[in-house]
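Here is my example:
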Amino acid sequence: MNGLTREFPDQANLGFDVLGAAELAASLFAAADMSALSALLIEHAQRVMGCREAILVWWLDGRQDPNAYIAGVLDAEQDLLVESALANPDQIAHSADRRRFAVTLVERHPVGAVLVASNERGLTDAQIRWALPDLVHSSISNALEKARLAEAVRRLEQAEKLQHALFAIADMASSEMDMPDMLRGLHQIVGSLMYAENFYIVLYDGDKDVIRFIYYVDAEDRRYRDPNEEIPLSRLENGLTWYLIRDKHPLMGDTEQLLQQISGPLRIIGADSPDWLGVPMMSGNEVRGVIVVQSYIERPRYTAADQALLSFVGSHILTALDRKRAQEELERRVEQRTLELTAEVQERQRSERLQATLFHIAELSNTAISLETFYAAVHRIVGELLDSRNFYIAVLSEDGSELQFPYFVDEHESKPQPRKLGRGITEYVLRIGKPVLADMSIPESREVIEELVAAGELGGVDPESVCWLGVPLVCSDRISGVLAVQSYTPGVTYTARDQELLTFISYQIANGLERQRAAAALKASYAVLEQRVAERTQELSEQISVRERIERRLKHEVLHDSLTGLPNRAYLRDHLTRALDRRRRNPDHRFAVLFMDLNRFKVINDSAGHLVGDALLKEVGMRFASCVRVPDVVARLGGDEFAILMEDIRGNEDAVRVARRVCEVLEEPVRVEGKELYTSVSVGIAVSDGRYTGADELLRDADIAMYRAKANSHQCFELFDERLHEEALHLLDLEGELRRAIAREEFEPYFQPIVRLDDASVIGYEALLRWRHPERGVLAPGAFLRVAEANGSLEAIDWQLYKRACALIPQLLAAGQYVNLNFPPLHFRAADLDTRLLELLRETSVRPEQFRIEVTEGALMDNPEQVSEILDRLRQAGVMTALDDFGTGYSSLSYLHRFQLHTLKIDRSFVTDLVPGGGGGGAAVVRAIIALSQSLGLEVVAEGIETEVQREALQVLGCRYGQGYLFAKPKPLAEIIASRM
C-alpha cells in the first residue's frame, strides 16, 4: 500500500460547514498531482477533524500506484482497517478500541482511495461523514482518474518511444555504417530505453570454440578489449557469459537469483554487480554470441521488457554482422576478381598485340616485294615490342655449311660477311636448337657463359654486349637460322617474356622464309591439285546421288508401314489435313474416311502365331488397296486397324459402296502357310462436314462408327450420323457431369445387408455405389461406370464412396456387424493403399473389425506380389478381405492360400438355378466351394438370393450366410434407420 502521513498539533477545531467543504473540494480539484491532493486531505483531517495521524491510500488501475510518494508505512492494524473498509465501502471501519478508523472515499473500480486516521476526538460516524461529504469523495475520484489517465499517457509515450527505438535499431542494422559506429549507435539507443551504462557484446565461433568482444563499455573495468582478439571460451568457464553460450537461455537478476538460473557453479569474473542481464544471440538453435548489460549501483531492476529489447537488438546485430560479412566477402571477391580480370586484360592485350604482330608478319611474308623489304618490316615490328636497336637475322646456306646474314643492324659493327660455322654464340643456338639469353649484368648468367667458353662450346662473347638474346628459326622441324637482338646499354636487358615473344615471332619469320622458298614448288603443284579436285568432285557427285536415294527411302519408311508397305498414320493425317484445307477453300469438295478393324485377329494371332498374323495383315492390306481408286489412300494405322481416305466423292453412297466392297473382299479365306484363315472387318465411315477442324476429329468419329458396327453383328459398316454424334456428345457431357459430381460429392453409399440364412438376422452390409444425380435421380453404376473408367475418374469416385461410407458406419452398425467395400484392381497399383485406408479409418473413428474389403480375382492377378503385401498389412491391422464373384474366374486354390483371405462370396450365377434338395446346375459348384472353404476355415457368403427356394437349397448345401433381394434391396442409411423404428 502507498500513503502519505503527517502529524499536526492537537488544537484542530471541528468548526466545519458547507462553505468549508466547497473550499476543500475546490482545492482538491486544483491539486497538481496525487501527492498534493494527499497533503490537502491529510491537513484537513488533522486540522478540522483533529486526527493526529492520517494516511491516504490510493489505487490506480486496480493496484496501488507504484509512483506515489510514501511518507509512512501502514502497520498491521491499519492494513486490516483498509481491508475492512474496502469490504464494506458504505460503512466506516473502526479499530477494536475505536482509536482508529478507515473510511472509503473512492471504491476500487479501477481507481480507489481509503483514508486511515486516528480518532483522538472520538468522532462519530455522522461527524466523520459530515467532515468528508460527497463533494470530497467526487473530487478525489476525479483526481485519481486524472492520475490514471496521466499514467496511461505516460505508458503510451514510453511504448511509442520504444517503438521508435526499435525502428531505429532495425534501420541502423541494415544501414551502410561501419560496425563500430553501428554498435555505438545501438548502445546509445539501448541506453535511452534502459540502464545500459555497462554494456558489452560477444561473438562466439562454435567451430573454434572462441569468443571476441566486438563491443565493450564498463564503468568499473575500463581495460581495452581488442574486437579481433580470439579468446578461448574455456577461459570464461562457469562465468555468466560461458553459461549464456552453453545453456542457450537468458540470465537476469542479482547473484543469488543468477545462481538459481544456471546449471552449475558460478565463477564471478570481474566486478560483482547488484543487477545483471544477458541474452544469447541465437541463429536457429545455434548460439552466435551474447549481449549483456549490468548495473553496479542500486536502481530499479531489469525487467522482462528489457530482456525482450536486448533479444531484439541481438537478432539485428546478427543480421548486421551477416550482412557485413557478406559485403566484405563480396568486396574481397570483387577485388580478387578485379585483379584477375586486370591480369587477364593485360595478358589479352599482350596477346592481341602479339597476334597482330604475327598477323602482320604473316601478311608481310605474302605481300613483301623482296626479302630485304620483308626483313626491314620485321625489324620495325619487333622494335614496337622490345628494344631492337641491335638486330640481325642469320640463316644457313642451302648446304648447311655456311652462316649468312641477310639482315644486320648494329650500333657498333657493320654487316658481317658470310662465314663458315664456328664457335660463335649464334652457331651455339643453331647447335642446341633452343633460345639463349645471355644477360652479362647477372652473375649467374655470366657464370654460365664463362663455363661454356671454358668447355669449348663458345669462342666468346662481345665484351661490350650487356645482354644478348637469340632464338632459332624453326620451320617444319628444321632449323634454318637465328633471330637475335642485343643491348650495349647498361640497364637495358631482356627477360624470359621477351624470349617467349621473340620465339613466337621467330616462327612467323621462319614460316615467311619458308613460304618464299616454297612459292615455286607451290606453283608446280597447282596442276596436280586441280586434277585431284576434278576427281574429288566426281566422287562427291556420286555420293550425293547415293544420299538422295537414301533420303527418299528414309522418307518413304517414315511415312509408310514397314510390314504392309501401306502409308502409315502420319501419312494419312497429313493428307487429311490437306483435304480439310481444300474443303475450307472450296466448300463443295467432299471426302470421306473409312476406319476398319479386323474381327477375330487377336484370336488368329494368339493361336497361329505372329508370323501368320503378319502374313494375314499383308494380304488384307493388298485386298483393301484393290478396292479404291488411284487418288484414294489406304493406310495401316497400327495393329489390325486400317483406314481409307476417299477424295472427291459425290455423296455418302460412294463411301458406302467402298465399305461394302471392303467387307466383300474378306469373304474369301486367306491362305497362309497351308492354312485357310477367315476374318471379317468392321468399318466406320465419317464424311466431311463443316464442323470438322482437324484430322483427329474425323478419325475419332470414324472410330466411333466402327465400334458401333462391331457391336452390330448383322452389319459390317456404320455411317457416322447425327445420332452417333449426339451419343458422343452425351458421353462428353456425362464426363463433365461426373467431374462436377465429384466436386459436389454427389456419390453416396447404399447398403445391402448380409444375413444369416437361418433367421435372416443382419451380420453386416455391403456398401454399393450410387449417384444422386440432381436431374435424373439415383443412378446405379451401370449408367456411368464405363465412362468413369475411361476418363480416369473412377478412383476419385471410389474414395468419395469410401469416405462417405466410413463416416456413416458408426450410425449404421450394431455390435458385431461390419461393412464390405469393393476395391477394383486399379486401387492396388498404389503401394500405399493400406496406409491411406487405415488413415481414413482413424479419421472417421471406425474400428478395423468393422471394415472389410472385397476384391476380385482380377485384382489378385494384376500385381500378385504388391497385392499380397497390401492385404497382409491390412490383415495385421485387423481389416479382413473377401474374394468376390468366386467361381467365375480362374478360381485358383493357390490364391486362397497365398493371400490369406477371410471370406469367399459365391457369384449369383451359381445361385440362380438352385432348387430344393441341393439340385440345379450350380449345385455342384456351390457344394465344392463350401467344402473348400470349410477345409480352409473361410467364411462363405452367397450373392443374388432372390427366392425362398434358393435360400433353402443353400442351407441344404451348408451355406450359412447370404445376401440378395429376398432379404432387402440396397438402401440409403436414412431408410435403414427408419425401418428399425
In short: Residues 304-367 form the longest helix (64 residues). The longest strand covers residues 762-773. The mean pLDDT is 83.
